[in-house]
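Q: Could you write out the predicted structure for this multi-component system? I'm mainly interested in how the pieces pack against one another.
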Amino acid sequence: MTAVNRQIRLARRPAGEVRAEDWGHGSEAVAVPGDGQFLGRTRYVSLDPAMRGWLDDRPSYLPPVGLGEVMRAGSVVEVVASNHPGFTVGDHVVGAFGVQEYALSDGKGAITVDPALAPLSTYLGALGMPGTTAYFGLLEVGALKEGETVLVSGAAGAVGTMVGQIAKVKGCRVIGIAGGPEKCALLTGELGFDAAIDYRSEDVRKALRAHAPDGVDVYFDNVGGPILDAALTALALHARVVVCGAISQYNNESAVQGPSNYLALLVRRARMEGFVVFDYARRYAEAAAEIAGWIGDGRITVKEQVVEGTVDDFPETFQMLFRGENTGKLVLRLT
Ligand code: NDP
């Protein structure tokens, strides 16, 4: 009997929030690796807010996922067959293998990881893309200096938990913005943030005046929208606003809500700069090694939310990001 590869494909371009009907659930025969290829069996699939942008037919830093194509996703696979000299059966490999049970790869962009050094899921989180995003966004784009005040939104998420903790390692004062009392308690408790603002129940501008009376030196923005606008009212002189993402705008059916308070950049002689983590690809190993050291000596706590299921659970799991139902890095473990 031919083995079957279950897959999630893009069936329709979503308008606004992604719906179940936008996805296609299907299967095909498991492929056989040719020369210079290996076959991987998926163990963990990464769920990322950026995936929402890839569903729209508009130019971005990556081309849109085509209609009918397997959904693009980062994942960890275990090599089950190989005709590639660099990958051996039993190896665990991270790459953009898509939302499917089996993936054929020529090895481009694939990185072998060691499950003895860290849980496989962590290579999609703290030691993977979100961790390196926090690291380079904060230290390079944000040009963080010891003793500064850092504000981060989406603070209880994959990137946000890392931003706040890296800033603490660097001797900074850290304020996090997140949704709900549990997430805020996590930030100021286990994760060591100095203050947390629950944007669902608090007036963010007022809370910022209380927590950062002298202003914020680095604002690391993961959410955009009204929270970005509030943060702009709290900038210190020569502040840096790091535009990492804007999840509050990703499901918009109308135009993106821009920052009406942008003149604060002029008044505070501040700058606002976007970045894409892929631009730092050649330095991923450097960041991962330093982050691994901080995890090893207990200065960084890894937060992950692992959902157990099959590829068919991908659509529902993806929506958790937009409902704020995840804490830390959201991954789907294929059981
Ligand atoms: P998270 O783990 O932070 O998950 C998303 C979180 O966003 C939710 O848990 C929720 O938390 C919050 N959220 C959802 N909707 C809203 C809303 N309307 N307003 C405010 N908060 C909202 O995701 P990631 O850490 O993976 O990604 C964080 C950001 O970083 C995203 O914008 C992403 O696109 C961006 N990113 C950018 C990269 C780059 O290279 N520039 C690379 C990687 C990520 P809560 O309960 O607090 O609302």
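A: Regarding packing and overall arrangement: Residues 129-141 form the longest helix (13 residues).
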